Request: fold
Amino acid sequence: MCLLLFFFSFLPVCKARIDLGFLIDGSRRVRTTTFARITNYVKETVRRFDVQRSQTRIGLVLFGQSPRFILGFRRSYSRAQVYSEIAKLRLLGETKRNTGQALLYAKKSFFNGKPRCGRRRVLILITTGTSRDDVVRPARVLHAMGVEVYSIGVGSVSFKYLRTVSTNRYHVFVVSARRLVTIVRTVKDKMCYSPG
Reply:
């Protein structure tokens, strides 16, 4: 345990100026154990960034049939405060999954207005299935605003479906819930070091 804590204390932290939003599938179709692994993935990703107003700002939206705002960029949150909000996340009691509506809500909640000079706009969608509403138009709206959209499919989610949401094919990941944590560094490095 001590060795694990020692390892995590020396993880490279991204110093890039990023507005990083997470759009998390909280529909009833997500298993409780899978949801726990999804929230752990979000926490481990946040751990890799310098979370403060002048560096990386974190936003969280939980969605099912309708989206629920958790955190946004207007207030300054410490990493510990973000962890606290992640720990409170619970599955919604909604069976339907409206990802398109959630994407538009993320645009309104996180990315409205002109982007700040030198600050990247990134949205990570994490879902366990397809949407019952259209995702193509909302995704195009975000792309046109300069938002880099990553899609993470947990379980047997179609790559083709996720590609319709993402900025490009290199922003798509399909992985089992057990292996979610294995892509943390890869996704972080793409956000932090690739040209924005």
User: Anything to note?
Assistant: The longest strand covers residues 18-25. Helices lie at 2-9, 32-47, 79-88, 99-110, 136-144, 159-165, 184-193.
